[in-house]
TrEMBL record:
Gene3D superfamilies, per the entry: Phosphoenolpyruvate-binding domains
InterPro entries the record matches: ICL/PEPM, Isocitrate_lyase_ph_CS, Pyrv/PenolPyrv_kinase-like_dom, Pyrv_kinase-like_dom_sf
Record protein name field: Carboxyphosphonoenolpyruvate mutase
Catalytic reactions on record: (2S,3R)-3-hydroxybutane-1,2,3-tricarboxylate = pyruvate + succinate
CDD domains xrefs: ICL_PEPM
Alphabetized GO MF terms: methylisocitrate lyase activity
Organism: Penicillium alfredii
SUPFAM superfamilies from the UniProt entry: Phosphoenolpyruvate/pyruvate domain (SSF51621)
Amino acid sequence: MRENAEMISNLDRSTPLIADADTGFGGSLMVHRTVTEYIRAGVAALHLEDQPTTKRCGHLRNKQLVTEEEYHSRVRAAVNARKQSGGDIVLIARTDALATLGYNEAVSRLKGAIKLGMDVAFLEGVTTKEQAKQVCEDLKPTPVLFNAVTGGMSPDLSVAEAQELGFRLMVFPGFALGPVYAAVSQAAKHLKETGAPAGSGGGSPRDLFNVVGLREAMTLDIASGGGQFDQGV
């Protein structure tokens, strides 16, 4: 997870990265290490949750939870790690308690985490716009994050709708999965049925290399007096 976060955060250091830290991947020592490693990787913010280490997606049913005390122990470890490292990473407190323990217990967990030093609240799996607006009101002035999972438990909100309800941050964790799944499935079906690949649709190999930095690589080589691309590509 740290290596993936480091790779993404270094694609463009001017764009801040919010990374999922799941449960912190263990007890307080592992939470401390996770936060420290994410800071070193250049991550701008992370969210930490209250499921057990063997967790499941927040938009599936029958999620298990650790006790509030254990969750807040993770929170303390995260806050202490940031302080010890001297970093400025934004710490997002996530709870999955809504579906299992109810709204009041979920908000209690978030308020406790905020009191301990977390910067942003994240109530996973809100089910209605009314509930979404309520949690933003109940946790003021702490910023609240909305997790936009298409087809999940939460209502589908646009950025403007989320802002109107009171959310200050919004993430779209699976926005590309559906389109990629559909495109790859269609291409695989075509290959299986015809024995030939479908039309590229996405351009030539040169176009794809340009997306991942070919032009920048050529510029760097020329600026340093290299000749790797003298004959073109």
